[in-house]
Specification:
This protein is mainly beta. Helix content is 7%, strand content 46%. Strand 2 and strand 3 form a beta hairpin.
Length: 108
């Protein structure tokens, strides 16, 4: 039997980036920090984890700092996502991107 890591479509990287997730059903925006990230999703630590529900449709904003991108300012990547899991023990959420991260729209 294969482990979850072996079944993943994309390799996950342990990276800490600021995020803003807007919940479509409430228009509430919650901030967090990624624990890990891939082309297909992320795990995000957020003190607002209890505001989210499994299967919530969201807009994900990933803030990439200049030291990551080589650009003079932070770049925000924006795209559609869905909450896969709400994790009260770790105070975070698992997010599935509805299109690959590389297809998210950049803004400066």
């Amino acid at each position: 039997m294969s482990s979850p890591a072996e079944r993943r479509k994309y390799r996950r990287l342990s990276r800490n980036y600021k995020t803003r997730v807007t919940i479509k059903r409430t228009s509430k925006e919650v901030e967090g920090i990624t624990d890990n990230l891939s082309q297909g999703g992320a795990y995000i630590f957020t003190p607002s984890w209890s505001s989210l529900q499994e299967n919530d449709q969201t807009t994900m904003n990933l803030l990439l700092p200049p030291e990551m991108t080589g650009q003079p300012d932070t770049i925000t990547l924006t795209g559609p996502a869905k909450v896969k899991r709400v994790d009260k023990d770790r105070e975070g959420i698992a997010i599935e991107f509805l299109k690959e991260l590389k297809a998210f729209e950049p803004s400066w």
